[in-house]
Amino acid sequence: MSDLDHLVVAARSLEEGAAWVESKLGVAPAAGGKHPLMGTHNLLLRLDARRFLEVIAIDPQAPAPSRPRWFELDTPAMHARLARDPAFIHWVERTDDLEAAVRDRQDVEITAFSRGPHRWRMALTRDGSLPGGGRKATLIQWDSGPHPWTVLPETGVSLLEFHPGNPDLQATFVTPSGTRTIP
Q1: What is the pTM of this model?
Q2: How far apart are CA 154 and CA 149, in angstroms?
Q3: Number of domains in the chain
Q4: I need a surface site. Which of 16, 56, 101, 170 has the fewest CB within 10 A?
Q5: Which percentage of the chain shows pLDDT scores above 90?
Q6: In angstroms, rounded to a whole number, what is the distance separating the alpha carbons of residues 39 and 99?
Q7: What does the alpha-carbon distance between residue 118 and residue 168 come to, in Å, rounded to a whole number?
Q8: What does the alpha-carbon distance between residue 125 and residue 111 come to, in Å, rounded to a whole number?
């Protein structure tokens, strides 16, 4: 069993991603952190019900990782897509038993991460592609420490509607200034 954990917006830089999210939702994301294993960094925006929106970008200060970056960030297609604008590209679902959730999947490997008090593991495709060609969620299990949602500032933004499994993702949010949809 899994629940929506977070939505993923990719950008060429965190500054571009933050400006894009603020233009769409009227609220700027907060500081996140770095993912040294992937050579990326992020910003986070608190939603409702233990969910958040992540803005992710390649960290220009980090060395290139020894494996393909997650969320197709190394692919020419994603580079071309993000050259036009930041984009809502994927979603992550949390589970309490990651090993059981991926037992029959040969296309993923479980990878451990940590940052500050947060410890988590994710089922990532070996080639950095989106699971199921973007039609399946990436899975995460938070192992210890607080869930990031608990330490993010309140935003007044909640997720009203999201239909996963479509490569042209769309989500509708209730924001302090009204209902807004991002493609």
Answers
A1: 0.95
A2: 9
A3: 1
A4: 170
A5: 86
A6: 25
A7: 31
A8: 10
